From TrEMBL:
Superkingdom, natural source: Bacteria
Biased composition (Basic and acidic residues): 1-11
Annotated region (Disordered), positions in chain: 1-28, 363-385
UniProt cross-references to Gene3D superfamilies, sorted A to Z: Tetratricopeptide repeat domain
Protein name as it appears in the record: Tetratricopeptide repeat protein
Phylogenetic lineage: Bacteria, Bacillati, Actinomycetota, Actinomycetes, Kitasatosporales
Bias kind Low complexity: ranges: 370-385
PANTHER family: HTH-TYPE TRANSCRIPTIONAL REGULATOR RV0890C-RELATED, REGULATOR-RELATED
């Protein structure tokens, strides 16, 4: 298997990932979730604010900061604009916005603001499937966060490294880092980051067959998110619960009901990426229930959503689900084999090792026979700012 060349986040940061206390925003037990990427004039925005509202307010405040010649404020408002664009699926605008935020922060000599901009850029790179670039930007963001004494910027950047390794399937490399970041988030009362870490650890358990433990963690994440009023985190947790009850309990109707509940929050907050992943999971649930025509239509919907936002991982995963559904509905075996071969090469290029293994399992499940030899196309990545 060809693996993406990268730094090992556990080796690079695990030994020095302890949080600095200076500048940290601490919250007592029972605290509500907050969004640290909403800063400066946008600091009062809620983690549950509609992304269209965030984008509108952020754009207005960014223009005001630029006109006033305040690069530090422009960097912080630009971060919110970048994140709103990214989560709405406007990847080209998000790419411009995080780079502009970084340049403004650099001109203000604000290392912490530079770290947040790099974090946004690294997260966007992962979303677009440019994993080597994601590692580089997130590594740099973590170092800038340490230099700027911003514990949250550093923590979020380390979390980004951990998540990038996790979606590749490198659980041994990032499992301990997930555990460490969970401990730190709990110690500071950070609801949103606690929920993220619980969901990441749960996903690793789910993918390695520890369904009972995965369900416990997803349910804890859902409870924590609900108590902290983190609707985005709860929507992702409900998706995880739906996945486990579908695969472990074969409870299709409960899984679909959970996904419908999560979808309602995604729509209220205009969470385009989360909504597309919700639909992709709905396709998974329907496929497991042998409702192949419904699964086909749902995967097609998710595929269109992911394609529109240039989300390569979601696009490829939706293609895999669609390919399997079409095969079950009578698609010629030769066409299925060709599509699976292309998907295998796509997952290899992106560096999604766990997903590549899913393709290999699909060849057995669908009886396509061996796939043609793999091609090792080099990964492409957007440029640095």
């Amino acid at each position: 298997m060809t693996r993406t060349t990268r730094q090992d986040p556990k080796r690079t940061h695990g030994a020095r990932a302890r949080a600095h206390t200076a500048g940290a925003r601490t919250h007592p037990a029972g605290a509500k979730a907050f969004a640290p990427e909403y800063q400066g004039a946008l600091g009062a925005l809620s983690v549950n604010s509609s992304l269209t509202d965030v984008l509108a307010q952020g754009t207005t405040q960014l223009r005001a900061a630029e006109e006033a010649g305040e690069p530090k404020e422009a960097a912080r408002c630009g971060l919110a604009v970048a994140e709103a664009h990214r989560r709405l699926g406007n990847v080209t605008a998000a790419d411009r916005a995080w780079k502009a935020s970084y340049r403004a922060a650099r001109s203000a000599r604000d290392a912490a603001a530079m770290a947040w901009a790099m974090w946004s850029g690294g997260t966007l790179a992962r979303q677009r499937g440019a994993l080597p670039l994601a590692y580089r930007l997130l590594e740099r963001a973590a170092d800038l966060g340490e230099r700027g004494d911003d514990v949250l910027a550093r923590g979020y950047s380390l979390a980004g490294l951990a998540e990038t390794g996790r979606i590749q399937g490198d659980y041994e490399a990032v499992g301990a880092l997930h555990d460490q970041l969970l401990t730190e988030a709990r110690s500071r009362g950070e609801v949103r980051h606690t929920v993220w870490a619980l969901e990441g650890i749960a996903q690793m358990h789910r993918n390695t067959g520890s369904y009972d433990r995965a369900l416990e963690l997803f349910e804890e994440a859902a409870r924590t998110a609900a108590a902290g009023d983190d609707r985005r985190g709860r929507a992702w947790a409900l998706r995880g619960i739906a996945d486990v009850v579908s695969v472990r309990d074969e409870d299709t109707e409960r899984a679909l009901a959970l996904l419908a509940e999560a979808e309602a929050d995604c729509r209220r907050m205009h969470l385009s990426s989360a909504l597309a992943y919700n639909h992709k999971m709905r396709g998974n649930v329907l496929y497991r229930a042998a409702r192949y025509a419904e699964a086909r239509d749902t995967y097609r919907q998710a595929l269109g959503e992911f394609t529109a936002m240039d989300e390569q991982r979601g696009t490829a995963l939706s293609r895999l689900g669609l390919t399997k559904s079409l095969a079950r509905l009578g698609r010629p075996r030769s066409a299925t084999r060709a599509e699976l071969a292309d998907l295998r090469d796509t997952f290899t290029r992106i560096g999604l090792h766990h997903a590549r293994a899913m393709v290999e399992r699909a060849t057995t499940e669908l009886g396509t026979g061996p796939l043609p030899d793999a091609t090792d196309a080099p990964a492409t990545a957007p440029s640095h700012p």
